[in-house]
Write a structure and sequence with these properties.
The complex is a heterodimer of chains A (625) and B (300). Chain A has four domains: 212 residues, P-loop containing nucleotide triphosphate hydrolases (Rossmann fold, 3-Layer(aba) Sandwich), CATH 3.40.50.300; 87 residues, Elongation Factor Tu (Ef-tu), domain 3; 111 residues, Elongation Factor Tu (Ef-tu), domain 3; 180 residues, Rossmann fold (3-Layer(aba) Sandwich). Helix content of chain A is 31%, strand content 28%. Chain A has 20 helices and 28 strands. In chain A, strand 22 and strand 23 form a beta hairpin. In chain A, helix 7 packs across helix 8. Chain A starts with a helix and ends with a helix. Chain B is α/β, with parallel strands linked by helices and 300 residues long. Chain B has two domains: 184 residues, Rossmann fold; 81 residues, no CATH class. Chain B contains ten helices and ten strands. The longest helix of chain B has 19 residues. The radius of gyration of chain B is 20 Å and the shape is globular. Classes of the chains: A alpha/beta (625), B alpha/beta (300). Chains A and B meet through helix 1, helix 3, helix 5, strand 2 and strand 3 of A and helix 1, helix 2, helix 7 and helix 8 of B.
């Protein structure tokens, strides 16, 4: 008996793992199907079965018979409670394979959950109710699965028992689906007629449909070829996750192989820097390896001591990655608030996190019809195509080649939530042909000539708070100390450089970006830059802060209560805004987000202009600028 | 586990990737070590993930003072062998109030475990804590993320979970916020046993059957692990051949009668078993709790 169990373990040890996703609503019998798979593969325990029998009688929808849907329907309960419907994972195992099923709800408002489930799946089971045929929902699910790169699609035509196992109905659905599938680029799929409720063609054949001579669903799941082969055939790539330095004598680069195979002695490049080296050791806890391939977590030791850190990618030198900082991408928006084009976000791809901005979408995709719709933004659950610019070049592959090196997430810089997922389609040519021109006289040199250290004094506050007046006074005081300054005023800049911009959120962000870039050039010229802009959004002030060398961005909150600013109303703007003649006016119908921790806080209700200016100048002097 | 073709090495590689990600992107991680089989597997993978370095974080045991004696023994041994620091935290408040599982029921777990953990996380300012929970354990865990975000009050908000795509994990958080990270989320009970078998990982002997002093109370076989066990007049200690499928505080953990005294016998028994793993735990069987949930769902 002990030998049997050893044999069993050896056999079980050699099972492969298949992650798949099921698509379809509860009405299509999705939960029943998963419950059936668990039940038939004996993953249901006695206590769970006893519970199921009780529940089936009490709340089941199948009369006196077992309602398998109840096994997995945490989801149904969620819906009744009206909370977010989510991805649930189910596990089962057979003689041949171990399976992880991502069970996701199918309605349009849960697109982000489905995308999440599909991102790690190698196969999709798309359920169709034989009585209803191909629905809008079927098309949407198929589109998302195809978009996320799932190559194996099973069309499970369910509830065949309710259409008298009629072949003509099955055939009509297949031909209908085929037309649609081809139109979105799905070249092949497998169709199986089943009844999840009765267990027909799920794990067991049935002679009720003698006209069907394909495999059962389970046989197909057990036999389908895994995509790893394709990833193995690609060039070697491993994003560096962690630099392993236990002592001075050992320096290894830990990561998980994203594609291909690496062998001892192989010549490799470190990207994006592009330096080359050779593989000296492939280290694991279980001993050194001669080679390693896709999916393995390893530690590489290189024969030449090279600068290499987290976020860089070690690649076979004969097949380096493309490196770029501008891309066309397909985005799935997941934030509760819509995309704001131009706002700076974090982009995480592989093990690297960079700053990035999304341009106005080229178009949104209606995922039910695959039509392109003109769009200025992307709302929650919308899918669209937009260009993205990163703040530094990153090594990548198109998503269609490799999920790890072509799939990314977008993170809001203030809330830290994941607001989007993206797939790189291709790099934009223009980014690869423009190089940074290194000049011989650098910023330090220019600053020294002026006998000062450059900085940016960034005044923010509502309209009429006194920014420009204080800025003017600060500049006078600095000039009297022979310091070289330049005052960038919000109104003045909008007369020239930014006269094409309005006051929508997107235009305000672009306004800030340009001002930030101009201020940065002036800092490089060695100047002390003083700016006076309402700059109402935290994100954009942070965007400019991130563009500037740390310590050189000094945020000054000119704090005047709205009521007082409105009382002053020097330019008569508040009156216009109140009467509706002026739209998107900060404080009235557009928000002002006060700084959380500005370097300097000026309360204009207790300070004169001169005192405020003196305080700012003193702050600068203490910084030894 | 070097053959990538099989599912265990795939799961191991995924867990390693998760651990390395935490160490790279958080400031002060810790590994919660409960001395159970899942913790044993997690610790073993941690050694692999950072080899030849030691795992760059301490182990932490949230001690209720009511664990089995053999658990304390293995805890100290395993920690010593790992070369990692071991932090033992006991809730001083619970200690002062003499909170115990016999007199206080659910409050015992709440104070010693839940509160104790929050105290420790606050005291040491850990911003990421590895836990050994698995998605196959129960329905609500089936939906928790691998990187599970906690607000500054350590609350989990199921409605506000971050989407988790591919293996790109969003680890960003504000000061005071933290993450619970579950590297073996995708493992099943069978995977755990197989991995212990193939990797020859030492586990608490209580998982193997032996003759042990027991009492049957409320339909559960409880082990009389020390002299703090108050016997009722009708109860007598009986030696039974028992083992445990899951380990916790000894007065709250039910044993099963079994003769499986070796790892292979245990796995064999597991394959033939007809009840789920958590059935031996009183916490999950609390009828009022599940009733309340059902009511919320509008079933009655």
């Amino acid at each position: 008996m002990a030998q049997d169990i050893n044999a069993y373990l050896e056999n079980h040890q050699n099972k492969t793992l298949l992650r798949f996703i099921t698509c379809g609503s509860v009405d299509d019998g999705k939960s029943t199907l998963i419950g059936r798979l668990l039940y038939d593969s004996k993953m249901i325990f006695e206590d769970q079965l006893a519970q199921l029998q009780v529940d089936s009688k009490k709340i089941g929808t199948q009369g006196q018979e077992l309602d398998f849907a109840l096994l997995v329907d945490g989801l149904a309960a969620e819906r009744e409670q009206g909370i977010t419907i989510d991805v649930a994972y189910q596990f089962f195992t057979t003689e041949k394979r171990k399976f992880i099923v991502a069970d996701t709800p199918g309605h349009k408002q849960y697109t982000r959950n489905m995308v999440t489930g599909a991102s790690n799946a190698e196969l999709a089971v798309i359920l169709i109710d034989a009585r209803k045929g191909v629905l809008t929902q079927t098309r949407r699910h198929s589109y998302i699965c195809h978009l996320l790169g799932i190559k194996n699609i099973i069309l499970a035509v369910n509830k065949m028992d309710l259409v008298n196992y009629n072949q003509a109905i099955f055939d009509a659905i297949i031909s209908d689906y085929k037309k649609f599938a081809n139109s979105i680029g799905i070249s092949k799929f497998t169709a199986i007629p089943i009844s999840a409720f009765k267990g027909i063609n799920v794990t067991v054949y049935s002679n009720l449909m003698p006209w069907y001579n394909g495999q059962t669903l389970m046989t197909h799941l057990e036999g389908v070829k895994l995509g790893r082969e394709r990833d193995r055939a690609q060039g070697f790539r491993m994003p560096v996750q962690w630099v392993n330095r236990p002592n001075l004598d050992f320096r290894g680069f830990s990561g998980k192989v994203a594609s291909g195979t690496v062998k001892l002695g192989d010549t490799v490049s470190i990207q994006p820097a592009g330096k080359t080296s050779h593989i000296d050791r492939i280290v694991t806890y279980d001993g050194d390896l001669d080679s390693a391939s896709v999916g393995q977590s390893i530690t590489l030791v290189l024969s030449e001591e090279l600068d290499c850190s987290r976020g860089q990618v070690i690649t076979a030198s004969e097949s380096p990655l493309e490196v770029a900082d501008q891309f066309e991408t397909t985005l799935i928006w997941m934030g509760d608030e819509a995309l704001i084009p131009g706002r700076s976000l974090y982009l995480k791809i592989g093990t690297q996190t960079v700053s990035a901005t999304v341009a106005e979408p080229k178009y949104q995709i209606n995922i039910s019809t695959t039509e392109h719709i003109a769009a200025k933004t992307l709302e929650l659950n919308a899918i669209g195509v937009a260009n993205i610019i990163t703040d530094r070049p990153i090594p990548f592959t198109p998503y269609s080649e490799n999920r790890t090196l072509g799939g990314f997430i977008l993170i809001d810089k203030l809330t830290n939530t994941t607001v989007g997922a993206g797939l790189i389609n291709f790099a934009l040519r223009r980014s690869q042909n423009i190089y940074w021109q290194v000049t011989e006289i650098n910023r330090d040199h220019r600053a020294k000539l002026k006998n000062q250290r450059p900085a940016i004094l960034w005044m923010t506050g509502v309209s009429g708070s006194g920014k420009s007046t204080i800025a003017n006074e600060v500049e006078k005081k600095l000039a009297s100390r022979n310091l070289h300054t330049f005052l960038l005023d919000g109104d003045n800049v909008r007369h020239g450089l930014n006269k094409d911009l309005g006051f929508t959120d997107a235009d305000r962000i672009e306004n800030m970006r340009r001002v930030g870039e101009v201020a940065k050039l002036m800092i490089d010229a060695g100047l002390i830059v003083i700016t006076a802009f309402i700059s109402p959004f935290r994100s954009e002030r942070k965007m400019v802060r991130d563009m500037i060398t740390p310590g050189e961005f000094i945020e000054i909150y000119v704090d005047t209560p709205l009521s007082i600013a409105e009382q002053r109303d020097v330019k008569g703007l508040y009156a216009k805004a109140r009467s509706g003649q002026l739209k998107n006016f900060t404080g009235i119908d557009s928000p002002y987000e006060a700084p959380d921790s500005p370097e300097i806080h000026i309360d204009t209700t207790v300070m004169t202009i001169d005192e405020a200016a003196a305080r700012i100048v003193n702050f600068l002097m203490r910084q030894k600028l | 586990m070097s053959d990538i073709q099989n599912h265990l090495s795939g799961l191991e590689s995924e867990a390693i990737e998760i651990m390395r990600e935490v160490v790279s992107e958080t400031d002060n991680p810790v590994m919660l070590y409960s001395v159970g089989k899942d913790s044993a597997v997690m610790l073993h993978i941690a050694k692999k993930a950072f080899y030849p370095s030691l795992p760059p974080f301490p182990l932490m045991h949230i001690d209720t003072t009511w664990k089995f004696q053999e658990m304390y023994k293995l805890r100290d041994k395993a920690a010593k062998e790992s070369g990692m620091d071991l932090i033992i935290h006991q809730n001083a408040d619970a200690k002062k109030k003499k909170i115990n599982p016999f007199d206080h029921g659910a409050l015992h777990t709440e104070m010693w475990k839940t509160e104790g953990l929050k105290q420790a996380l606050n005291e040491y300012k850990f911003d990421a804590a590895f836990g050994g929970a698995r998605r196959d354990e129960e329905k609500s865990r089936a939906k928790e993320r691998i990187f599970s975000f906690r607000n500054s009050q350590h609350r989990w908000e199921p409605k506000a979970q971050r989407p988790e795509l591919w293996s790109v994990y969003n680890t960003r958080k504000a000061k005071g916020e933290s993450m619970r990270v579950f590297p073996i989320s995708n493992w099943t009970e069978l995977d755990i046993w197989q991995y212990i078998y193939f990797e020859e990982i030492e586990i608490v002997p209580l998982y193997f059957a032996a003759l042990r002093p027991t009492v049957i109370r409320d339909g559960m076989i409880l082990m009389v692990d020390d002299d703090r066990f108050p016997l009722k007049a009708s109860e007598g200690i009986v030696m039974r051949s028992i083992r445990f499928r899951t380990l916790g505080c000894y007065p709250l953990t039910g044993a099963i009668e079994s003769n499986a005294s070796t790892l292979t016998q245990v796995i064999q028994e597991m394959l033939l078993t007809t009840t789920s793993e958590r059935q031996g735990r009183t916490i999950d069987n609390d009828p009022s709790a599940s009733m309340e949930t059902k009511k919320q769902q509008g079933y009655f």
